[in-house]
## 1
Amino acid sequence: MKNSSKVIKSSGYSWANVEKREYKTDTQNFKSIHRYTLLTNDLPGLNTETRYFEIQPGGYSSLEHHKHTHSVIIIRGSGSVILDNDLKKIAERDVVYISPETIHQFHADNSEPLGFICMVDCDRDRPKIPGDDAIRSRISTEKVLKKIRK
Amino acid sequence: MKNSSKVIKSSGYSWANVEKREYKTDTQNFKSIHRYTLLTNDLPGLNTETRYFEIQPGGYSSLEHHKHTHSVIIIRGSGSVILDNDLKKIAERDVVYISPETIHQFHADNSEPLGFICMVDCDRDRPKIPGDDAIRSRISTEKVLKKIRK
C-alpha cells in the first residue's frame, strides 16, 4: 500500500492546501458556518473522516439526526450544543459524543466563534432534518425548544 | 438504541471523570507520556476511539507500525514526528495522517509538552515494534536514524 502519511500544517484555523468550503450545499437550515475537510476517504486504509467546522457568532449548524455517530472536540472558542432534550455549554477542549439518532445542533451563542473537529465514519447514512412533528414528539424541554433554529 | 450522547468537560488538558493513565503497559520503548481515553468502544454505534496523548519535554512515543491508521490533531505545544524516512515539525492544530504500516514516533523535542488527539478504529491490529533489521531496511535517511529512540 502506498505510504500516504503526511502532516497538514495549520495557519491559525486554516490548513495548507485544504480548501475552505461551504458547510453544506443541499440544505438551508444553518447560519454562518464553514468547513475544512482535513482527512477523507481518498486516503488508503482510512475509515474515519476528520473535518473542521467553524461557526461565527450568532450562527448555528443544521438541526439533524442520523444513524452514524459524531466524535467532536472543540478547538476554538465556545458555544452550546443541543443533544435531544439537553442544552450543554461547550468550550475549548471539551469532547462531545453524539450517539445514533440524537437530534443535535451546535450554536455559536457566546459572542465568539465556535470551532470544532468532527469525526465521522467514511461510510455513513445521510442526515435527516426533523420536522415539527418529530421535534414535538422527541423534545420536551422548553429551553431546547426555544433554542432550536430551523 | 440508548441515547448516550454526552459532553466531557475539559479542565486544561484533563477531562472530567476520565482517568489519566499510563501510555502503554506492554512495552517499554517510550518515555514521559500519558493518555486519556476519551471516547471508546463501550459507546453504542462508535467505530472510532478518541484518545489524548501528552508527551513531556524530552519524551517520545514508541517507535511502531501497524495496519490501522492514525488520524492526529495537535492541540498542545509542539515537537516532531517520524513518518518512515521523513522527520516533520509539528505544532498546535497541525493534522497528521499515519497510513498503514508507516513506521512512526512522536517526539516532544521543543522544550514544551506535545499533546495530541489520536483517532483509531475500535477494531484494529496490534502495533509492531520494528527491530534493527527492519529499521535499516526501511529507513535510509540519516536524520531519522539519528532521531529514533527505541
## 2
Amino acid sequence: MSGPIPVLRTLPQMRELTGQWRRAGESFGLVPTMGALHAGHLELVRQVKARCRHVVVSIFVNPTQFAPHEDFDRYPRDEAGDLAKLASVGCDAVWSPDREVMYPAGFATRVVPAGAAEGLETDFRPHFFGGVATVCCKLFTQVGPDIAAFGEKDFQQLAVVRQMVRDLDLPLQILGVPTVREADGLAMSSRNAYLSAAQRAQATAMYRSITALAAAARAGADLASAEAAAGKALRDAGFDKVDYVAVRDATTLKPPAAGTTEGLRVLAAAWLGKTRLIDNIPV
Amino acid sequence: MSGPIPVLRTLPQMRELTGQWRRAGESFGLVPTMGALHAGHLELVRQVKARCRHVVVSIFVNPTQFAPHEDFDRYPRDEAGDLAKLASVGCDAVWSPDREVMYPAGFATRVVPAGAAEGLETDFRPHFFGGVATVCCKLFTQVGPDIAAFGEKDFQQLAVVRQMVRDLDLPLQILGVPTVREADGLAMSSRNAYLSAAQRAQATAMYRSITALAAAARAGADLASAEAAAGKALRDAGFDKVDYVAVRDATTLKPPAAGTTEGLRVLAAAWLGKTRLIDNIPV
C-alpha cells in the first residue's frame, strides 16, 4: 500500500472493493472497532494480516449498544489519529458508514442473541448484546470477510459473536485474540482515556484481583468465597462499585459445576467513578 | 441436467456445490419451500431459472414458524413427488437439511422482524414471522444465492423478507412472483390438500370476496364498511372464522390514510373447518 488508506462510507463503495478482491481470489479479513484505536486493536489488525491478503477495519460507534444513560456521546472519536495508526500495521481500507447508512429510516430487524449472552454483562447492560449482535451481523454481511477478529478483552462479546455466526451460518471464521495489556497489567481499552491519574493507578487492582481469583479457582478453592474476596479487593483498592467478579465455564459462560478446575474463565466488571472497566483471564 | 436432482443434506455439501458455481462465475438462485410442491412453486423455479444459471430449491418444514397447536405434524410431506416435479422445471439441486442441521443443540440466536411484520398475520400467529425471518436468514447465508424467489400468495411474508434483507444488508435480491391460481381463482397452496370436496367448493369465495373488496377500494368506497361486507361474504359462503379481510398500504402493510385509492393491497385470512386459507390481490 502507498498513499492514504481509503475510507469507504457507502455500501456500494465497500462492495466494489471487496468484489474486486473476491474476483481476484484474494482473501480478506475484518476488524470491527468503534475507533479510538489502541495497541490492542492494532494487534487484531496484525493477526488478520498474517492470515489474509487484505484487512478492512470498520470504525462505527454503534448507538444501539449504548443505553440512553451510557457514554455514547462522550465516547472518544479520533478518525485522523486512527488512520495514522492503521497505516502503520498494513490496514488496506477503513469501513466507516454514517449512522444513516447503517440504520436508514424504517430500519426494524433485530438479531437477538441468547445462550452465551445470558448473565454477566446482560445483567447490567440488558440492551448491549442485542445491539452488538445486530451490528456485527450487518458488518459481516456488508463486508463479507473470510475472517473477523475480536479481542478477548470483551470475552462475553466474543462468545456471543461466535454463537451468532454459528447459529446463523454466516460464512466466516471468528478469530479471538488475547488481550493486550499495559506494563502494569491493565487491559488496553478506549475507555481508559476517561480515567484520572489517581483512577489510572487504582485501575491496576482489576488485573491483580482476577489473577488472584484465577489462582484460587485453579487451586480448587470454594468459588463463592473466592469471588467475594476478589470483589472486596476491588472495593478496597478504590473501585466504587463492582458489577461482578465471577468464575465461569469458558465456553458457555454458565457457573461451573462444583469442583471444576479446568476450562474456566474469570470475568470482572467494576466502576471507577463514572468509568466502567471490564477484564478477564483464563484459569 | 441429466440424472436425478442431487439432494444435499449437510452444509459442507451445499457449500461445495455453490462454491464451484461461484468460482466459475455462474449465477444461482434459491426458491425456499416447505415441500408439498404445486404449480405455484414450479413457477418460482421457472422465474429464477430465467434469471440465473442454476436454481436451488430448499425443502424444509420449519418447526419454529408453527405454534404448538398448529399443523406442523400433519403438514404434507412428499419428497419423491417433489423431486419429480422439480426435474420438470430445471431445478439443479435440492437443499434439504435435517432439523438437527438447521437447529443443532445449543442453537439460540433469533432474527426478530418488525415493521412489515406488525399486524395482520402477527395478530393471529405471533410466533410466525420470527420463525420465518430466522430460517430465511439462515437459508440465505447457507446457500448464498444471487436471487431468492417468494410467491406473492404470502404477501406479508414477502414484505417481511424484503425488510430483513434490506435491514441486514444480505447480499441478494428478493424476487416476488404473482400468485398462481386454480381455474376458479383459488390461490394454489399446499394446505388446499386439507380441504374436503365441499370445503374446496366453498373456498372459491375467498378470491371472489377480495376481488369485490379491491373493486370497492378502487372506487373510493368507505373501507371499514367494505371490509365488513367482505368478511360477511366469506362467512355467508361457509367460512367458519374470518381472521381478517383488510385493505392496506402495499408497501408498509399499515392501514391507508382516508381517501387513498392507489398503492393498496387487499389481504385476507379465514378458516374452513381446521384449515386456514390466506390470499391477497392488488387494488
